[in-house]
């Protein structure tokens, strides 16, 4: 919208070029470009860019808006005079914005307003519907010499080249010409590849023990036609082409009736985010004495002028991705295991910004600032208790359980947990709430106890109660540190692993509570 006008005799002829950055890399590579739209400062581009989206990665995009000179060919090198402005954005920002729609100011031409770029993201629905249907048949041809037939159905979807692929077989109903088959479930993708008008062929067979099943007849339909059975019974004539040719009085080989047909959607993480679900991010940092004096280079909290501490790196790695899904960008941040001024009282959930009534920090930079400020004012002490801060976030999560809010707690710690029983109890309680817990272990300690909390192998339990869902993900930071000292790469690797389970954990909560995504306004 409102692009710079670079053309003397008419308006600009803009084109947008999309560049992407590899994970942990600073190099930009061209991904694709839109069509050129002639003579306009407010172009609406038609060409879409299809990208693979990963919640757990920071996928940086750069959009350059250029003026395509009439004589310039598609591959021509575009000079400085062709540049109309650019915008930098993370894919997560677009998806996390309201209704997947983000407007960003274009910059890059000194002293001039370059207009704005409007980005729209939508998930390619790879036909996620699942169908449940039930059929019965009436007066099928008798095929067995001594008894009646043993009928079953075989479903085929048609392919682009006119061939057919088998996609479902019903069970065999023994010794009847009027079978009623059990309801069955099949993805729409498998039935018709997402094309509602594509032919679905159904063969009716009489089962034989030796595998030489007798063909009774066939009929054809489509997904669209089948779906009409949601409001009425649909009856199909079963026809045997060979019999039809031979017998003049042949009517049919029986009928098949579609008794019921229902459709359910499998929702995705993006469906919930587009429907307005917000991710609320909370940070808890270990201030116990085992970390070492923050002023000493050996301390895990030590930040040199040239390098962030392991704590700061872990915080940035996770926070910078999650913040794209939180509209207010206000993050509660706590410390635990320190003595607080003025009276040296030990606290296991003190606000890093020193404001008990409002522990929110503005953005990840605000959290980092408050963390560094706390290091200068509190005394590192102990013990290492997780339960108070888990219960604090669980309390907030319990306030809103309708699917509009989902909480992610990041705990960064250097070691052995002191309140294991209370922490397990807190996790079991939290597993019934809309929240996930990420634990990042920093430093050289052994973290066996943490592995126990990460319920991948055995579900966490406390006093005979088991966690409803697996909500804890633990990783030791040392496994992700890049040998060459590339901190950007270390952060990208860490985020990729610790955040990978969040979408599934959110979906598991929504599914167990039967919460459907809110429909985004068109």
TrEMBL record:
GO MF term list: calcium-dependent phospholipid binding; metal ion binding
What SUPFAM superfamilies does this protein map onto?
C2 domain (Calcium/lipid-binding domain, CaLB), vWA-like
Please give the PROSITE patterns that the UniProt record associates with this protein: C2 (PS50004), VWFA (PS50234)
* Any one annotated GO CC term: plasma membrane
Pfam families (alphabetical): C2, Copine
Coiled-coil stretches, from where to where?
none
Domain annotation C2: ranges: 1-97, 98-236
Is this entry keyworded Disulfide bond? no
Query: What keywords tag this UniProt record?
Result: Calcium, Metal-binding, Repeat
- VWFA domain mapped to chain residues: 280-481
- GO biological process annotations for this chain's record? cellular response to calcium ion
What family is it from?
Answer: Belongs to the copine family.
Name the chain's protein.
CPNE9 protein
Organism lineage string: Eukaryota, Metazoa, Chordata, Craniata, Vertebrata
